[in-house]
Specification:
This is ATP synthase CF0 B subunit. Helices cover 89% and strands 0% of the residues.
Length: 184
């Protein structure tokens, strides 16, 4: 135990300058060795360390510059994308509005054409009905005329003699010829 306490007490004790020997005091020698090693490292390692630090500093600055450039490029691309998005949204709104107005226009055109078609069908129906009525009326007139003619011929045949009959036929032929000249 005495050796341990002696070593702590001898910290303040330095051997005299005139003698050469080994210093067995571990704490004192370590401080000297460390200061010598640190001095040598600082003297010789200063350039290497400053070069390493400068290189590291340049890499960090380059990384920061690159990051800033990438950030600026990303911001520009974002602005371009936003501008394209606004443009596309405006075009989409125009298409939507134009589409709705086109749909309404087509709807109105379809309704109008349907009304026209219905009106034409109504006209065709009325024309067909009128034609059929006229046809039926003409058929009835023709039958009535045929029956009246047959009745008149029957009455004439029973009442007329040949001479009167020939005169009546000649007069009717003359009337029909005059009517034909008027219609031509």
């Amino acid at each position: 135990m005495k050796n341990v306490t002696d070593s702590f007490v001898s910290l303040g004790h330095w051997p005299s300058a005139g003698s050469f020997g080994f210093n067995t005091d571990i704490l004192a020698t370590n401080l000297i060795n460390l200061s010598v090693v640190l001095g040598v490292l600082i003297f010789f390692g200063k350039g290497v360390l400053s070069d390493l630090l400068d290189n590291r500093k340049q890499r960090i600055l380059n990384t920061i510059r690159n990051s800033e450039e990438l950030r600026e490029g990303a911001i520009e691309q974002l602005e371009k994308a936003r501008a394209r998005l606004r443009k596309v949204e405006i075009e989409a709104d125009e298409f939507r509005v134009n589409g709705y107005s086109e749909i309404e226009r087509e709807k109105l055109n379809l309704i109008e054409s349907t009304y026209k078609t219905l009106e034409q069908l109504e006209n065709y129906k009325n024309e067909t009905i009128n034609f059929e009525q006229q046809k039926a009326s003409n058929q009835v007139r023709q039958r009535v005329f045929q029956q009246a003619l047959q009745g008149a011929l029957g009455t004439l045949n029973s009442c007329l003699n040949n001479e009167l009959h020939l005169r009546t036929i000649s007069a009717n032929i003359g009337i029909l010829a005059a009517m034909k000249q008027i219609t031509d």
